[in-house]
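Subject: design request, 296 residues
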């Protein structure tokens, strides 16, 4: 994955609160790619919310602003994104949001942007308090994506993903898929409390995978409004394989087999490795969000 070296990154789309002191609040796992991981750790190893570092009070926490935002100081151009993980995250957020803004316009609709919050350790959100154990997640309450960059090392070390820059881009694009679902009213379908291979919870996650694939197909064609040129200049077959590998690594069956030694489809919340790969690739193959109807 390569970026236009001369592109100007829009750091206003990323809030860097790493190192901030975040007040506590009730625990939450908010519809994100890896929220299931914290739940599985609790179920399979007997680790409760207190052990995971999640609090259970009633207070609504708020995000504290960092006194010195690293990304605002360091991430200025596409060349920075080619060199630094933080800046690559900014560039991917810019590209994903540029695509959805233009796609919504094409459909005579309005896209409302969502910032990504970079945090470390723990963070407060409109959905409650959470720690890095939850993994990346999207909070519909404040329309923000929350990401601890340390998760990507966990993805490689604990879940066996091959890694690579595009594996990270896939995770970010998946979370923005949830934001698109929120804007379209789709997220409400998953709030029936049911689990299982055919549950709405799984269908919502697979659709977010598909939306990530749609962005990946269009990324090198989406004009950056700041330059008129695509921010991402190249995605290779190896990049897409990294995305598929990351999608498989967080499949419910893979995680269950690894941590409990058996697969229980009736408890799935995110879909199997094969399903996740299938729907990401369907989005990438078609480049059309209309092909992402996982509810049929």
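Subject: RE: design request

Done. Sequence follows.
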């Amino acid at each position: 994955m390569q970026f236009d070296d001369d592109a100007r990154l829009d750091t206003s789309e990323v809030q860097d609160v790493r190192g901030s002191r975040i007040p506590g609040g009730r625990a939450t796992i908010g519809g994100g790619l890896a929220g299931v991981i914290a739940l599985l750790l609790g179920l399979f190893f007997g680790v409760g919310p207190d052990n995971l570092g999640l609090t259970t009070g009633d207070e609504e926490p708020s995000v504290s602003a960092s006194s010195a935002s690293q990304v605002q100081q360091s991430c200025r151009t596409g060349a920075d994104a080619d060199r630094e993980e933080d800046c690559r995250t900014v560039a991917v957020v810019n590209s994903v949001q540029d695509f959805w803004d233009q796609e919504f316009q094409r459909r005579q609709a309005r896209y409302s942007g969502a910032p990504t919050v970079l945090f470390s350790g723990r963070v407060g959100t409109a959905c409650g308090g959470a720690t890095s154990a939850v993994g990346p997640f999207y909070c519909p309450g404040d329309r923000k994506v929350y990401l601890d960059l340390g998760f990507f090392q966990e993805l490689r070390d604990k879940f066996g993903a091959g890694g690579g820059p595009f594996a990270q881009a896939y995770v970010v694009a998946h979370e923005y898929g949830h934001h698109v679902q929120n804007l379209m009213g789709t997220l409400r379908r998953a709030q029936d409390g049911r689990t299982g291979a055919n549950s709405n919870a799984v269908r919502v996650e697979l659709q977010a995978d598909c939306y990530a694939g749609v962005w990946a197909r269009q990324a090198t064609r989406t004009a950056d409004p700041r330059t008129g040129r695509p921010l991402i200049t190249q995605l290779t077959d190896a990049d897409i394989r990294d995305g598929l590998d990351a999608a498989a690594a967080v499949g419910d069956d893979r995680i269950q087999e690894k941590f409990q030694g058996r697969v229980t489809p009736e408890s799935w919340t995110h879909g199997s490795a094969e399903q996740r790969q299938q729907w990401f690739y369907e989005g990438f193959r078609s480049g059309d969000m209309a092909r992402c109807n996982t509810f049929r």
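Residues 24-68 have pLDDT under 50 and may be disordered.
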